[in-house]
Amino acid sequence: MTFEQQWIEYDYNPFVLFSAAGKILSLNAEAQFLLGSATTEELFNLASSYANISFGFKTTFLELEFGRYKFFAITVGYEDDEAIGIKLYQAPSFKINKPKPIGESTNIYALVDLCILSYSINSKIIFEKDFDPTIPDIIIDSNNFIKILNKVYACYENNQKIVTKIFYRIGEHIKFEEKKYSLFSVEISAKNVDEEKLGELKVLIANTNFYIDVQKKITINIPMILS
Fold it and tell me: Where are the alpha helices (DSSP H) in 123-164?
């Protein structure tokens, strides 16, 4: 692998090269992760739709989201009718201007299961779980986390199904006291949301050290502090 090829391989932004028929000819490491959230057909159609009318390269600024991946722009390029490439630019990692979290070493799965259990006992809601099983015990303020997660589930209580995912945020980190920590997320989603309880949730999280992304899905982003 040449030095230039290594730059592409280890780029933080996904790159995929397709044949004219939509078959992947090559891709970098980050694109391999992306294909866990997006299909080959989706990416090829994206490249075809935003390609320049004539040969060459074209950069387009747009908002894209595939699973936990968010992008703010793409570049599509081709020099002939045999192949077309696409590079997707990941949105910058969020910044947390809050003090380093304090708490006790806790199993995050146990906390989430406890909250789900409290809601499922007297409820007909189906709680679907999609957990990455490799996250170790981390330092977290358990009491506040449980309060927040219970409030999140309350926002979605008028649904037949609530989906909870726990996953690593690949390539993202937060720095406390000049030390970097990887991040993972607890993401909750459902079809309908109670706007009044959503407002109560926003008030609650404003007074905590948790970073929470409130959009169509509610995502609690947590640093991997092990000790």
Answer: 142-155
Q: Give the pLDDT confidence of 162-221 residue by residue, as tens digits.
A: 999 999 887 677 877 777 888 899 999 999 998 888 888 888 887 777 888 887 789 998
Residue 14 and residue 30 in contact, taking contact as beta carbons nearer than 8 Å = yes
Determine the Cα–Cα distance for residues 205 and 157; give it in Å rounded to an integer.
Answer: 19
Q: In what order do the strands lie in the sheet with 161-176?
A: 126-131, 161-176, 179-189, 218-223, 211-214
Rounded to whole angstroms, the Cα distance separating 110 from 213 reads 22
Strand partners, 104: 140
- CB within 8 Å of 166: residues ≥ 6 apart: 108, 109, 112, 130, 131, 132, 135, 184, 185, 186, 187
Residues 6+ apart with CB under 8 A from 224: 135, 136, 138, 181, 182, 183, 184
